[in-house]
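Can anyone check this?
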Amino acid sequence: MSEARLRLLRNQASPSLGIASRKPQRLTITLPWSTYQALIETSSEQGRSLSNTAAYWLERQADAMRQQGA
């Protein structure tokens, strides 16, 4: 098993702990330049960190996909 897979398994919350005890997870991604620029502009306009803005965008998209039944 790869080292990355082992780290992922170690970092996952135990099912017996429930959703309330799950902590936010870090993620590294590669973005198109235009998306990166849009994130920077939006975070600056809203006074948010780049990380917070990216998390907000991802949460909104995930919510929209769940509502569509995707």
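Reply from J.R.: I decoded it. The two ends are 30 Å apart (CA to CA).
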